[in-house]
From TrEMBL:
Domain of life: Bacteria
Identification of the protein by name: DNA-directed RNA polymerase subunit beta
Region (Disordered), start-end ranges: 1-39
Keywords: DNA-directed RNA polymerase, Membrane, Transcription, Transmembrane, Transmembrane helix
Recorded coiled-coil stretches: none
């Protein structure tokens, strides 16, 4: 029995050392996290969300109009700015309604 106790003691000491190391690492991690969270300050947004959405919508519309102009003038052999006239769209809609 005494031999078993002697062999168990070094094992227990190793286990204790491991658990102590783990606890130390965890406490260091906690300390680092606390320091980071305390040192961080809120930085305001440079561009608000509503302005980003507005910019995206405006750029999308701009790209749409550029695509319409290029398509109507190059592919369709029309005047570039005629695509922006209301009469042109009335004419296109009339073609669609007739075919139905």
């Amino acid at each position: 029995m005494s031999n078993e106790n002697k062999s168990e003691q070094p094992k227990r000491a190793q286990v204790n050392k491991r658990t102590e190391r783990r606890k130390e690492r965890r406490s260091r991690r906690r300390d680092r996290r606390r320091e980071r969270s305390q040192s961080k300050q809120y930085v305001g947004r440079l561009i608000p969300v509503w302005l980003k959405l507005l910019i995206i919508i405006v750029l999308s519309l701009f790209a749409l109009f550029i695509g319409l102009i290029i398509g109507f003038s190059i592919i369709g052999d029309g005047q570039p700015l005629d695509v922006l006239r209301f009469e042109t769209w009335e004419h296109i809609i009339d073609f669609v309604r007739i075919e139905e």
